[in-house]
Design a protein that fits this description.
The structure holds 2 protein chains of 2 kinds. Chain A is an all-beta fold. Chain A is built from no helices and 11 strands. In chain A, the strands form 2 sheets. In chain A, strands 2, 4, 5, 6, 9, 10 and 11 form a 7-stranded mixed β-sheet that branches. Chain A has a 4-stranded antiparallel β-sheet with strand order 1-3-8-7, with no helix packed on it. Chain A starts with a strand and ends with a strand. Classes of the chains: A mainly beta, B mainly beta.
């Protein structure tokens, strides 16, 4: 257990529905990352928060995706009008402070869009 | 274009042998290179980090080397055990970026008893 939790662990939805995932990072870590991982691939960066500020977004993050971290603690990732191509594992990570940026990952939310 | 390649999708070795996994990158100038272990259905777990000015790092049965001239890192597991079976991911943290990691696609290691 890395101390990062994600909810739900699994989500099955129908195409066109909206879904929201939650991440609770390690409490003293002020940075938080979202990644997406498809089968046989490594995680791909989606977006990054420092405290409540969203400082960077990948071009992978289409306008159907939105992320928030309202109080600089937990974060949510919402996908609107889901598509089958959104099926993936969504991972949240919070890094150690300092230059190395070793990341502590949560267990992920497995999304299946039917 | 920038690319990270891990030597093979799958590697099978006999218990007790040394597993060697390769990570090659092009068109990057990484500040750090990291290795992670990932078990099925779980998030990656950090193993080792090596900086651009370091040649080698060790932790218990693990050893990482980093050659910035060859743009390559090697990851070794000595005296391998079936419990070492997992997917191993290399990741780069670029200089001056938002510090996100860029991952390779991983090598699935199976240690046979």
């Amino acid at each position: 257990d890395t101390g990062v939790s994600q909810d739900p662990r699994h989500k099955i939805t129908k195409r066109g529905q909206n879904v929201t995932f939650r991440c609770d990072p390690i409490s003293e870590h002020n940075r938080l990352y979202w990644y997406r991982q498809t089968l046989g691939q490594g995680p791909e960066f989606l977006t990054y928060f420092q405290n409540e500020a969203q400082l960077e977004k990948s071009r992978l993050l289409s306008d159907r995706f939105s992320a928030e971290r309202p109080k600089g603690s937990f974060s949510t990732l919402e996908i609107q009008r889901t598509e089958q191509g959104d099926s993936a594992m969504y991972l949240c990570a919070s890094p150690l402070a300092g230059g190395g940026n070793e990341q502590f990952f949560g267990p992920g939310t497995r999304l299946t869009v039917l | 274009s920038q690319k990270i390649e891990q030597n093979s999708e799958a590697l099978n070795i006999q218990e007790g042998k040394t597993a060697t996994l390769t990570c090659n990158y092009t068109n990057y100038s990484p500040a750090y290179l990291q290795w992670y272990r990932q078990d099925p259905g779980r998030g990656p777990v950090f193993l080792l980090l090596i900086r651009e000015n370091e040649k080698e790092k060790r932790k218990e049965r693990l050893k990482v080397t980093f050659d910035t001239t060859l743009k390559q890192s090697l990851f070794h597991i000595t005296a391998s055990q079936p419990a070492d079976s997992a997917t191993y991911l290399c990741a780069l943290r670029l200089s001056g970026s938002a510090r996100q990691l860029t991952f390779g696609s991983g090598t699935q290691l199976t240690v046979l008893p």
